Amino acid sequence: MAEPIIQAHDLKVVYNVGKSNEYLALRVRELEIYPEEYIILFGPSGCGKSTLLYCFLGVLPPTSGELLVKGENPYKYDWRQMQNYQRNTVGIIYQAFNLISSLSVLDNVALPRIFANDNRSEREKKAMVLLERFGVEKQAKKLPTSLSGGQMQRIAVSRSLISDPEILLGDEPVGNLDATSTKQVMDTLMEVNTHDRKTVILVTHDAKHLPYAHRVYFMKEGYVDREMVNPERDQIKKIAKGKTIMTEVEKLARLYPYATQEELRVKSIVNYITQDITFDQIERMEKLVQLCLEGRVAEEDVYSALIAPFAAGGIEIPPAKAAVMVKKIEGILSSARNIRQYRQRRSEKIYTQSQDERVRAIRREMLDLYAGQVTPGDVEMMENMIALRIAGFIQMEEFENFLKNGREKNGLNFGSHWARVLSRHLEKLIAQATHL
Q1: pLDDT of amino acid 1
Q2: Least confident among 157-166, 289-298, 384-393
Q3: What confidence tier does 248 reach under pLDDT thresholds 50, 70, 90?
Q4: For residue 67, what are the domain limits?
Q5: Total domains, the chain
Q6: H or E stretch including 389?
Q7: pLDDT given for residue 332 in this prediction
Q8: Fewest Cβ atoms closer than 10 Å to its Cβ: which of 109, 146, 277, 365?
Q9: Is 131 exposed, middle or buried (0-12, 13-18, 19+ CB in 10 A)?
């Protein structure tokens, strides 16, 4: 196994040393990153992940401790050595594209090679190869301001690779992009790691990106809280036998990425004593529901997938329970569509009997959950309040109080439990509707 390309030992970054507002921004006891690894520094804003990244870049000297890149401390370099380090050893892409608006795309990508004294034809040839590779060669003569966010970030990636650095750093590079552009850029970074065999170190707070990495460092309040090995990627760092097995706690970490290890263990126990299906079943169920949301699976096939044996690729849910699940899924998706259509027609100022029927369908789906009795007057009042809530004229708390309060307060007197259950169910429907 190769030696680590980056090593950190007892690394600290302290701002305003010796002053009343002294602040410990980063403390890393031990960290090793190996050549060709894809590493993610993950955590909420202010946890120290970007601070650590800029230590790697050579622009933020540690207050104490040791940082070695390729066996050398970059903060002991003179300015010429540092220039060479930031040109040939590390490259970086930012959340902001940092493209020069008055230069063409080709000139933006080629710009770093001007300072390396490459002649014009040589640097433009290198730049064009990268633009072609990342599918933006047709934009070469255009100004950056005429391009989409995804195109500009792929151009920024091209620029970061023009000097062929060994390490590519990314500081929230997809933070301002839409879903399509985000996937394009993340796939580009994956290609840089697998095809170019570059070491990629990405800062992100988005848990959806974690499967790209070989290893993830979860950061919290300036320190590394835990390390997670991705069993879906062949590991470069030598991992202890059994370490790549995805434990239940690690599966929970994907569901609750900001939870501490202690909190994850608690959730594991609570899940065991309150749930009768495993996390492996839940993962397959999530994929099945995703297909439902995308309209890629017929309703009758959902039931078949739920009851099929686990060894055959199914989820192995008992038939009676599977039937209940199918009914719930169908009810949620149907009500969510009704809410979406209701909101859309209302925004277009279209008022027809179909609008009333949509509200009635939502009310029926909600009352299927309710064990109590309702009068015709209750039904009418409930439909009026549902219409107000899905149109955004009242808040969740107002709807919940309406269900809970007694008749003297113009409520339905459903009680606290059912008011909470039904109001939260309606919020789930609204949340689904806004993303359909």
Answers
A1: 66
A2: 289-298
A3: low
A4: 6-244
A5: 3
A6: helix 376-391
A7: 87
A8: 146
A9: buried
